[in-house]
Design goal:
Blueprint: H1 2-19, H2 23-42, H3 46-57, H4 61-78, H5 81-90, H6 97-114, H7 119-132, H8 138-148, H9 159-164, H10 170-173, H11 190-209, H12 220-223, H13 235-241, H14 249-254, H15 257-278, H16 284-299, H17 302-312, H18 317-335, H19 338-349, H20 355-367, H21 373-391, H22 397-417, H23 426-433, H24 442-445, H25 449-465
């Protein structure tokens, strides 16, 4: 059985290598496709489409900067001596490629259930394990890391359930919802708990079945092409190399533990204040701030920390220039009315039995144009919930809440799953895992087709039949 799965996985990988363009080309094609649909279906004028594209271009600047900081602050932590020693100890227990694949998928899912941004930690851990364990197919390991990201949608940072439980959210302000929907109907529902079991138990097993047989020339050590001589020195040694041959105030400041620890303690004070006053609020800003402060403590001096950040930021160009293009696609969807029209189509054809199916599929399709759970829901969510309100007219308040919760979760699951075919969030993984090697999305995405198909079928059944 595993041999059949492996052969199919390798077949899809070959297809993707031959046919899938660079991730940036993928974004350009999506831009043109979304524009053409808006023109022919919505009737938007070319100028309106271009204006919408431009207006959307800048909507992800904050998000893009958050992604960059999340990557480089997390990577900086991984470059610290303490973390490297910890991973060395871990490899005493994880010694084979299959153990690495299983561990990476499982730990990645669990970490992303805490916060989707912790995909960065999974990527860091996977790369370090690949440097230490022989026989790992590095392309497949990257696929394992990316696959583990789908678990975020059932976890603490799942944007749609959190929005539904937010006071005075835009759905309530717009009269679409009468009140907030407690997370007991979404994150704590039987459906979502069942989805967590699916992620934690089934996902690692699927990736074990798909492990490639041929790893020749695909290990990380075989792929490394970096000739950066600075990487031959550890961070402490490089910091020492910058010192002047005589005593200088500048060197004392550059290598001052006292100065850095004072700033670190200021940050730690705020972190304690944040979590004691706001509970487990793991938004992107506080996560990045925690990573920053932790990096200060682990690297001890400003010079060492600066060197670690320089090394960590050497491969983030993909995010810097591709995020605005995806934001432009989002602008076309939003400002031409294309996203709203898609929601209206669902409203016109869905029934009380079929609405979860349509919501799930719609969430998956729109994700290609708007690869952001919260952003996508802002565009299509109101139309879908209004459709559910019409379909369920006459039902009790509890039944209506359950229907809205099911529709919202269905959109969220569909959106998260199609990330396996959409390389947007691979931009979060590649700056870490592709450092020093030549790799493209096409080398990875083919391994994810079979997991996508299996989860698509299982999740579709679950969103229809599992109780809330």
């Amino acid at each position: 059985m595993s041999t059949i799965w492996t052969k199919l996985g390798e077949k899809f990988t070959d297809i993707f290598k031959k046919n899938m363009p660079n991730a940036f080309v993928f974004a350009l094609i999506l831009t043109l496709l979304t524009a053409l649909i808006s023109f022919f279906w919505i009737g938007a004028t070319p100028l309106k489409i271009i204006q919408s594209w431009y207006d959307g271009f800048w909507t992800l600047l904050e998000f893009g900067m958050q992604m960059v900081l999340l990557i480089i602050t997390g990577y900086s932590i991984a470059l610290s001596p303490i973390v490297e020693k910890g991973i060395d100890r871990l490899t005493q227990y994880i010694k084979t490629p299959k153990q690495v694949y299983l561990f990476v998928v499982l730990i990645g899912i669990l970490l992303c259930m805490i916060s989707w941004g912790w995909l960065v930690i999974t990527a860091l851990l996977a790369r370090e394990l690949a440097l230490r364990v022989k026989g790992i197919n590095y392309y497949y390991l990257i696929a394992c890391v990316y696959f583990s990201h789908i678990g975020w949608v059932s976890g603490l940072s799942s944007s749609i359930p959190l929005l539904l439980n937010t006071e005075k959210n835009y759905l309530i302000e717009g009269g679409i919802l009468a009140s907030t929907i407690p997370t007991s109907y979404t994150l704590g529902s039987t459906l979502n708990i069942g989805m967590i079991v699916l992620f934690v138990v089934v996902a690692p097993l699927i990736m074990l079945l798909l492990v490639p047989k041929d790893n020749s020339g695909k290990e990380l050590k075989d792929l490394l092409v970096s000739t950066d001589k600075s990487s031959q020195l550890n961070i402490k040694e490089e910091a020492e190399s910058f010192k002047l041959p005589f005593k200088a105030i500048s060197d004392q400041l550059n290598n001052s533990m006292v100065l850095q620890y004072i700033i670190g303690l200021m940050g730690l004070t705020y972190i304690i204040f944040h979590f004691t006053t706001k509970g487990l609020d793991l938004n992107l800003n506080i996560m990045i701030f925690v990573f920053l402060m932790l990096g200060l403590f682990l690297h001890k001096t400003p010079m060492r920390y600066s060197i670690s950040m320089k090394r960590a930021s050497s491969n983030v160009s993909g995010i810097l220039f591709q995020f605005p293009f995806y934001a432009g696609i989002m602008g076309i969807m939003t400002f031409t009315g294309l996203g709203e029209r898609l929601g209206q189509v669902i409203a016109s054809i869905a029934t009380i039995d079929s609405y979860p199916v349509y919501a799930y599929i719609l969430g998956g399709i729109v994700n290609f144009a708007i690869p952001s759970g919260g952003g996508e829901f802002a565009v299509i969510g109101p139309s879908v919930i209004e459709a559910v309100n019409n379909i369920g007219a006459g039902l009790s308040a509890t039944e209506m809440t359950e229907m809205i919760s099911r529709a919202s979760l269905s959109m969220a699951y569909g959106e998260a799953l199609t990330n396996l075919l959409q390389p947007f969030y691979l931009l979060l993984v590649l700056p870490i895992m592709a450092a020093g090697i030549k790799i493209q999305a096409r080398d990875v995405m083919g391994y994810l087709v079979l997991p996508f198909l299996v989860f698509f079928i299982i999740q579709l059944i679950m969103v229809v039949w599992m109780p809330i």
